[in-house]
Write a structure and sequence with these properties.
This protein has helices at 24-33, 59-62, 73-76, 98-107, 121-130, 144-153, 169-178, 192-200, 213-222, 232-239; strands spanning 8-11, 37-44, 50-52, 111-116, 138-141, 158-163, 182-186, 204-208, 226-229. By secondary structure, it is an alpha/beta fold. It has a single domain, classed as Phosphatidylinositol (PI) phosphodiesterase (TIM Barrel, Alpha-Beta Barrel), CATH 3.20.20.190. Strands 1-2-4-5-6-7-8-9 form an eight-stranded parallel beta barrel, surrounded by five helices. It starts with 7 loop residues before the first strand and ends with a helix.
Length: 240
């Protein structure tokens, strides 16, 4: 796929303000809200399965001690990742596989914005090729070496380089070598000058994670291309 100029409102971990993050329920809620791009995080289990999950530790989302990467898919597939959320309305929510999340988005003509947390490029490549989804997704990561590996394996893949802290010459130099399709930066760390530098180099620029409407509106007026938010429905009203 190609990334069109924005602004586009991106549902962060699904509609994570109204449903547990990185779950089927959060993705479905974002779809109902009319989101056209849905971001989710992906980690690899000890036996090589790619699963939606943000944290390195299990406890916040499952109530269980330990590292995500230490367990197999069979050991965690029945974990409850919904009881922690607000009033408990999502108690019993299960983890969702990366492949199933991609399929769910594509079935509803929504672009999956896949954030790599852990796992090898070849494992992501295998899933995307099996689903015939290489040209229908975006893959982003803070690990720019991983993105380079993905681009080498899948030249037509759209990639996004994530970052934070002030943009300096070293980071800009690496971006020029990587040539991502877009750059996703922490909104509080991106100066007007840094934004101008990125646009001058021809990048589309998205901000994470913006949950304040006034902040989002300020950046939309500046010409930002994407806003990653827990509140996609609220932010989409700004575009009207």
């Amino acid at each position: 796929m190609s990334v069109s100029a924005g602004p586009v409102i991106i549902a962060h971990r699904g509609a994570s303000a109204v449903a547990p993050e990185n779950t089927r329920s959060a993705i479905e809620a974002a779809i109902r809200m009319g989101a056209t791009v849905i971001e989710f995080d992906v980690r690899e289990t000890s036996d090589g399965e790619l699963v939606l999950f943000h944290d390195d530790e299990l406890e916040r989302l499952t109530g269980k001690k330990g590292k995500f990467a230490s367990l197999s898919w069979d050991e965690m597939r029945e974990f409850d990742v919904g009881s922690w959320f607000k009033s408990g309305d999502f108690a019993g929510e299960k983890l969702i596989l990366f492949s199933d999340a991609v399929k769910l988005c594509l079935e509803h003509n929504v672009t999956p914005l896949i954030e790599h947390k852990t796992g090898k490029a070849e494992d992501y490549t295998a899933v995307l090729e099996e689903l015939d989804a290489v040209e229908s997704v975006i893959v982003q990561s803070f690990n720019w070496e991983f993105l380079n590996d993905m681009k080498e394996q899948l030249p037509s893949l759209v990639i996004g380089a994530l970052g934070s802290k002030p943009l300096d010459g070293k980071r800009m130099g690496y971006l020029s070598r990587l040539k991502p399709d877009w750059v996703g930066w922490k909104f509080s760390d991106l100066s007007k000058e840094g934004f101008a530098d990125l646009k001058e180099q021809g990048y589309l620029v998205a901000l994470w994670t913006v949950n304040d409407s006034a902040e989002a509106e300020k950046w939309i007026k500046r010409g930002i291309d994407g806003v990653i938010t827990d509140y996609p429905e609220q932010m989409m009203k700004l575009l009207d």
